[in-house]
Amino acid sequence: MALSNPSFFQALLFLSLATSAFSTQPYRDGLTPNFYDYVCPRALPAIKRVVEAAVQQERRMGASLLRLHFHDCFVNGCDASILLDPTPTIDSEKLAGPNNNSARGFEVIDQIKAEVDKACGYSLVSCADILAIAARDSVVALGGPSWEVQLGRRDSTTASKTAANNDIPAPNMDLPALINTFQKQGLNSRDLVALSGAHTIGFAQCRIFRDRIYKDTNIVADFARSLQSLCPRTGEDSNLAALDPSPAQFDSLYFHNLLAQKGLLHSDQALYGGGSTDEMVKTYSDDVEAFWDDFAKSMVKLGNLKPLTGNQGQIRLNCRRVN
Ligand code: HEM
Ligand SMILES: *[C@@H]1O[C@H](CO)[C@@H](O)[C@H](O)[C@H]1NC(C)=O
After folding, report:
1. For 308-323, what is each residue's pLDDT tens digit?
2. Is the shortest distance between the CB of 86 and ligand 2 below 6 Å?
């Protein structure tokens, strides 16, 4: 009978490979790095071009794009919910505490979406996948590690300001609270430390680190003093300070700084100073390869948080609006 004939199995194998390789439907369960390879090989290069141009124009943009992916994934999974503008029916995450007057880079995402749709000839690539790829390309553009991005996410039709307020970690948190917010996402304390290394790039506003530089005791005095001149007790709320001494280089100085009690945010310094994560901070501070390896692995875990796949959600035509 047919089952004993090897060519039957070959045909079956061919069929299953062919349907997964050429299908325009998302991969059945979960994500795959090859998702757009056959349907639009120009998609990923188009995204990289726009990210590189944006980062060349303003180095900080790389940091801002990386943060958008993080804030997307921590709120009901990586579904581009952070990109939806407020409407009477959309409870926009852009207005949540951690994002309001803080999250940025939305215009670059719009530009990427326009370019990738032009490259593919139609609206094929989800806004959630664009965020994941732009995060990786940003890290690479600032001299950091690369990794294979899992793809096939679809876009949400809803957003939740409440979930954004509850689930995105806050800069005044101590280590147990930070561990807890990551644990709720299925991420462990190694992921917490490695991913916090994202603060090797980018900036924070005076209003965010004011309490730390006037009230914390686990901060070195001359570092606090120099920040106090930039960030007075009142006013100048949006003045920027670099999160580490080289905010446009994806290096290990962020961790090195923590050893010297020079973390900018309370939540940064919480990773070093007598707690369970001290050893990881020490390791990453003098082994940039160990940091990069773990960061890349944890970014893949972050990007895999509760994606919409199959016929869930939609591929938005405009990342700011539900179709
Ligand atoms: C561990 C808990 C974390 C807390 C409490 C936290 C908090 C913050 C805060 C308060 C800022 C400054 C915002 C502002 O001043 O407007 C910031 C900036 C930033 N965060 Fe985090 N963050 C955390 C983890 C992460 C993770 C996991 C990533 C990415 C993987 C990330 C990426 C960034 C980047 C790149 C910036 C700079 C953005 C820019 O310059 O535009 N953060 N973070
Ligand atoms: C967001 O920030 C603006 C100031 O730019 C402020 O007027 C508004 O009340 C804030 N929104 C929320 C929901 O906090």
Report:
1. 999 999 999 999 999 9
2. no
Q: What are the φ and ψ backbone dihedral angles of 180, each rounded to 5 degrees?
A: -65, -45
* CA–CA distance, 43 with 61 (Å, rounded to integer): 21
Same domain, 145 and 181: no
Q: Is 101 in the pocket of ligand 2 (CB under 6 A)?
A: yes
Q: Do residues 248 and 284 both lie within one domain?
A: yes
Binding positions for Ca(2+): 72, 75, 77, 79, 81, 93, 200, 244, 251
Q: For 88-125, write each residue's pLDDT tens digit.
A: 999 999 999 999 999 999 999 999 999 999 999 999 99
Q: Which of 125, 148, 168 is the last residue of a domain?
A: 168
- CA-nearest of 184, 170, 199, 181 to 281 is 199
> Residue 21 sits in which domain range?
2-168
pTM: 0.93
13 with 162, same domain: the answer is: yes
Higher pLDDT, 279 or 15: 279
Rounded CA-CA distance 71/164 in Å is 8
**Domain end residue (candidates: 132, 150, 168):** 168
